[in-house]
Design goal:
A: 9 helices, B: Rossmann fold, 3-stranded antiparallel beta sheet, 7 helices, 10 strands
């Protein structure tokens, strides 16, 4: 009700999301297994030549991360929408943007962070040059929150649609394009020992823009979906 | 202004969906401590009216003058299948932030006892029966401090014991100066209350009458 309660609401929502994620851990593992499987398929499809794999590694790992992140986006607001939780949250008088931000933070911690942690393994599989691995990790640390932030807008827009999953990917993939270009270009630059801070800096500015605007856009989209 | 003394006043309120009026315009005033029963057949717009009053929908015509945000308990129970009854209630108590957290556990125990769910307090939401879910969703009446309640078919799925329990909760709320707007399609009505009644007519029904 009051402004002081906003922080507790944020904390309560985060705690609930972690508890739910723990209870539904099988659901949580699916995107990660998907990420591993997609990356494993590439050497089988394009041939196991180490040089070829090293060349395509940045793109493959990033595209697999995009796909894995989109997989988990559809459920970001859906269950809360279907059981009436979202309705009650909107009516509670708490800031909807803050509620959206709490969901996004929780989503990144359970879906984005594991991708970052898995990336050294993926880099090894794809024979990525050792000096490029830290850059790949950095690009994922900066990039995966942006995936969650932009994805949340799409998730909120499609939450009231029965089969919103496909539309969701059509909506968010074009918005992921700049991120993909910058990230893969940074990692490729690191492989040939060129400077890559420019790309990472641009990605970081993208993160800040998304962090400031996406919660409000998500809140507006949620309001729209509920009426 | 005399209008401000009412807890909620509604004048000539109607709502259009796809350019068709959902229900005929509704007007009423409510004071503290009163109960309004909204009746009407299935599909006549009772739920739509409550969603309008809650602020989930924007009225197409007419005005709602409400002193503060009401509490809305609709058909969707807002219960997580993967959380236990206790975890669900504690989450909502913390989220609403109406009580201090250190008293939370005790208050939660009392709320669960008052709604008669103590035996299933540790069971997951998915294992609850329809009536138990209804009781669990009504729990928020006990820990939120809104003065105006909007209850959508609160008696549905409840057993006689549950109905008596709800009547008790309602009586306490009205005596404390709260008010309540409740919908019912007719078969179950709150007993032993002084109440206003508002009968709703669906927009379609009127056009059907004109055509005939």
């Amino acid at each position: 009700m009051s402004k002081q309660a906003t922080g507790t609401a944020f904390g309560a929502l985060l705690r609930r999301d972690f508890l739910l994620a723990y209870r539904r851990r099988a659901e949580l593992l699916q995107p990660l297994v998907f990420l591993l499987v997609v990356t494993t398929l590439f050497p089988l499809g394009v041939g196991p030549s180490p040089q070829l794999l090293a060349n395509i590694a940045p793109g493959v790992i990033w595209i697999a991360a995009l796909l894995a992140s989109v997989l988990s986006l559809d459920s970001l607001f859906r269950s809360d929408y279907e059981d009436g939780t979202l309705e009650q949250m909107v009516l509670s008088g708490q800031s909807l943007a803050l509620i959206a931000l709490a969901r996004i933070v929780a989503h990144w911690l359970v879906a984005g962070l594991p991708i970052v942690l898995l990336s050294p393994l993926l880099a090894m599989w794809m024979n990525l040059a050792d000096e490029a691995v830290p850059v790949l990790i950095k690009s994922l640390i900066i990039g995966t929150p942006v995936l969650s932030l932009i994805g949340a807008i799409g998730g909120a827009l499609t939450v009231s649609l029965k089969r919103g999953g496909q539309l969701l990917s059509l909506l968010v993939f074009p918005l992921y394009v700049p991120l993909l270009i910058l990230a893969t270009s940074a990692v490729s630059a690191a492989v040939v020992e060129l400077p890559y801070t420019g790309q990472l800096g641009l990605m970081f500015s993208g993160l800040i823009v998304a962090l400031t605007l996406a919660p409000f856009a998500t809140a507006a989209a949620l309001k729209l979906s509920l009426s | 202004m005399p209008q401000d003394s009412h807890m909620i006043s509604v004048s000539e309120l109607s709502f259009e969906r796809y350019f068709e009026r959902v229900f005929e315009p509704v007007s009423f005033d409510m004071d503290a401590g009163s109960l309004l029963l909204v009746t009407g057949s299935n599909g006549c717009g009772k739920t739509t009216l409550l969603r309008l009053l809650a602020g989930l929908l924007e009225p197409s015509e007419g005005k709602i003058h409400c002193q503060e945000q009401p509490l809305y308990a609709g058909h969707n129970p807002a219960i997580k299948d993967d959380l236990s009854v206790e975890e669900n209630i504690i989450f909502w108590m913390n989220f609403m932030g109406t009580r201090e957290t250190n008293r939370g556990k005790e208050l939660c125990k009392r709320v669960i006892r008052d709604i008669g769910l103590t035996p299933v307090a540790l069971q997951e939401g998915r294992t609850l029966s329809a009536g138990q879910r209804k009781r669990c969703s009504l729990a928020r009446l006990l820990f939120c401090d809104e003065a105006l309640w909007l209850l959508d078919e609160p008696y549905s799925n409840l057993d006689p014991e549950g109905i008596a329990m709800l009547d008790d909760i309602l009586k306490t709320h009205l005596e404390a100066g709260g008010s309540c707007i409740m919908t019912t399609h007719g078969s179950l009505r709150p007993e032993g209350f002084e109440l206003q009644e508002c009968h709703m007519i669906s927009g379609r029904e009127r056009y059907a009458g004109v055509a005939a």
